[in-house]
Amino acid sequence: MRLPKHIGIIPDGNRRWAQSKGMSKEMGYEKGINPGLCLFKLCEKVGIKEITYYGFTVDNTKRPREQRIAFTNACIDSVNVISKENASLLVVGNKESKMFPQELNYYTERKQFGTGGIKVNFLINYSWQWDLGQIMTGENMDTRDITNNIASRDVSRVDLVIRWGGRRRLSGFLPVQSAYADFYIIDDYWPDFKEEHFYEALKWYDKQDITLGG
Amino acid sequence: MRLPKHIGIIPDGNRRWAQSKGMSKEMGYEKGINPGLCLFKLCEKVGIKEITYYGFTVDNTKRPREQRIAFTNACIDSVNVISKENASLLVVGNKESKMFPQELNYYTERKQFGTGGIKVNFLINYSWQWDLGQIMTGENMDTRDITNNIASRDVSRVDLVIRWGGRRRLSGFLPVQSAYADFYIIDDYWPDFKEEHFYEALKWYDKQDITLGG
User: Fold this and answer.
1) A180 neighbourhood in chain B, CB within 8 Å
2) Which domains does chain A have, with CATH numbers?
């Protein structure tokens, strides 16, 4: 089976899940932590080399305060949970903003845990404008290759994006790295994550003809 | 009905269509010209404000010579056909390269035909690296807004991307403008374009919850 090297995860539908259970919207986020760990373990098992989780974005921080606090806490917990595994962890996002949780500052340079293992990236207070805007600062103008000049330059090309919650869009997820990615959409909400979702996505990806635009 | 303002068209499957008819691959491209005009007329009828056609890319020019000639000619014809309509036409692509057809030079600044009408953009010898690479030249560094600094800055945000030929990826199509776009995939090949494809895509788009990342 031809496996994707790098999988992008858009864990959408936490609020809709909470509402469908009669809970208030912000209650859905903490139910997304365990799925993130399950997915990590599946990736480890089958041999995926890199995972990027879409944590929260600068756009998201404009939501009501109780939601912002809930998704920020769920993201902090998610990163901490993965730091107990064999993973090489990096948090990517605008840490100059007060919306960036200080608890995650330590991870804004890649840190190895256990045997290292899978490269895991979390996008936290991320925005594509911020990511590409780094090009304009000219700090890394040693090359004509824009992929070396964006803020997320330590995140590799994404082969497969899996999105939960039925929406068929990137919502600003790593536009440069996703230029050639294949998109797989799962209608179930992220808190309803099942192992089958992951295996179905891999089975589908195996059938795709990868051309990298050629 | 809530309509997309700007539709991106990825007219894929020309070669597979030709092969399915027992023809050689490059024969498929000229069968894509008429669908492009049909689609333009449908957009005009329902009131779409802007269309971007994915013509060919720098990546594509690495294909066998006979294919390159065939898709280049089909693109030239497609632009000329739309120039007979009420359209405000722009060709966006790397015109410094010898792969850029000289016949389309005239359109590399937006030109109005008839009453103007719909804004139509053709991506010709386009590449996302080239598009974003323009930021690094610093020629338009009058602002912190990267959308004003890319080569395709005269192309608006895309609301809906429709791709024919079954593949679920952007293949380098306007990464900045497509950051929030909804993706609709049609399994039929582009030469088998039907009006229903367009109407089904609009019906689907009308049901999407547009948040622009919020």
Assistant:
1) 169-172
2) 7-206 (3.40.1180.10)
Count of residues for chain B?
214
- H/E element holding A50? strand A50-57
pLDDT digits (tens, 9 = 90+) for B158-178: 999 999 999 999 999 999 999
| CA atoms in the 13 A half-sphere facing the CB of A4 | 31
Q: Name the residue facing B181 among A133, A138, A169 (closest C-beta).
A: A169
B168/A146 touch (CB, cutoff 8 Å), yes or no: no
B109-135: pLDDT as tens digits: 999 999 988 999 999 999 999 999 888
Nearest C-alpha in B relative to A211: B171
A57: which chain B residues are within 8 Å (Cβ-Cβ)? 213
List the single best residue of A146, A152, A177, A206 to mutate versus B (max B Cβ within 10 A): A146
Question: How far does Cα B122 stand from its chain's mean position?
Answer: 5
Q: Give the span between the Cα atoms of B29 and B190, in whole angstroms.
A: 9
Å from A14 to nearest chain B CA?
14
Backbone angles phi, psi at A123, to 5 degrees: -90, 115
Candidate from A128, A168, A209 with C-beta closest to B179: A128
d(CA A125, CA B207): 28
**In this predicted structure, what is the pLDDT of residue A142?**
53
For residues A189 and A131, what is the distance between their CA atoms, to the nearest angstrom? 27
SS (HEC) of chain B: CCCCCEEEEECCCHHHHHHHCCCCHHHHHHHHHHHHHHHHHHHHHHCCCEEEEEEEECCHHHCCHHHHHHHHHHHHHHHHHHCCCCEEEEEECCCCCCCCCHHHHHHHCCEEECCCCEEEEEEEEECHHHHHHHHHHCCCCCCCCHHHCCCCCCCCCCCEEEEECCCCECCCCCCCCCCCCEEEEECCCHHHCCHHHHHHHHHHHHCCCCCCCC
- Transcribe A135-172 into DSSP letters: HHHTTTTT-S-GGGTSTTTTSPPPSEEEEESS--B-TT
Distance between CA A23 and CA A124 in Å, rounded?
A: 25
Which amino acid would we find at residue A124? Answer: I
Tell me if chain B has a CB within 8 Å of the CB of A181: yes
